[in-house]
Amino acid sequence: MNSQNKCRFTWEDRGVYVVFEGEFTMEQIMQEHERFVGSPAFDELIYTIVDLTKADLSKIAADDAFSLVAADVGASMTLPDNIMSVVTVHPDTIQLFQFYAEQMQSVGAPWRVGIHKTVEDARTWIAEERDKIRLRNLTPKPFKDE
User: Fold this and answer.
1) Residue 13: which of 55, 47, 49, 64 has the closest Cα?
2) 114-121-13 Cα angle (round to 5)
3) What is the enclosing helix (H) or strand (E) of 106?
4) How far apart are the C-alpha atoms of 11 and 39, rounded to whole Å?
């Protein structure tokens, strides 16, 4: 089965809901990632929900996630306020994306990454994170005397 048949992007107002279904290799995920960041809508994103509840990522080792981290570190520099939620209930996938989130944080990538069991939980968390960003952007910066 072609990876295009297993991955669906639903563009929302300043966000995207991505559903993966079936078995995926890291190479296939990276192909979908290229399609994702290559979209003109990518530049306007403030959130991403990646639904992996129907995906089988069992062929992907934690070390394979480095290619995704490298790609997303670059993407996060042009889109620093993006909030990403991974939706899954599969223990191996949770572990894989915990590793991903740790690696993103360790290199200073600005994206906030959360892992949730339902899309509803993901949307609630994203709304809370968006509020934090709004508050951060409204907080006056201290005046520096030169």
Assistant:
1) 47
2) 85
3) helix 91-106
4) 10
* 116 three-class SS: strand
* 83-87: strand order across its sheet: 7-12, 15-23, 47-56, 83-87, 112-116
Is the whole-model pTM more than 0.90? no
The per-residue pLDDT for range 76-97, each reduced to its tens digit, is 988 888 999 999 999 999 999 9
Q: Answer left, alpha or beta for residue 82, where phi above 0 means left and psi between -120 and 50 means alpha.
A: beta
Location of structure tokens 């563009």: 11
* pLDDT single digits (tens) 102-129: 999 999 999 999 999 999 999 999 999 9
